[in-house]
Amino acid sequence: MKVTIYHNPSCATSRKVLGFIRDTGIEPKIIPYVKEPPTAAELADLLARMKLAPRDLLRRRGTPYDELGLGDESLSDAALIEAMVKHPILIERPIVVTDHGAALCRPPEKVHALLPGSSTVPPPAKGTAATGDRATTRKKGSSG
Description:
Elements: E1 4-6, H1 12-23, E2 29-31, H2 40-50, H3 77-86, E3 95-98, E4 101-104
């Protein structure tokens, strides 16, 4: 299966999603989108595949969002896409594209629905009742 991740290595969520992908035995194509931003046409295609509006993909924290006045609701989709192309740090991450579709993987567990052999629900974490390790999930005072 072909998997592509639009990745920012300085983002913990992006690193976590990359780890989930690699845990399935797949080495994805990694696009460091901050250094190699998509074109306006590529970004528009990604948005369409994810069924998102450009505003849904805008990142505010740690970006020039406010300085560029991107909170202005009168800005067109084309203007928002152009801003993201010029300032790719504005693009929320990570975006994963597979044969099963494309998604903004926030929360990171969203990637499981796009990967082979994965369900939409990730396996239970260690230390939960579902794994049989009840000691860490018992409430105080329970005799479990």
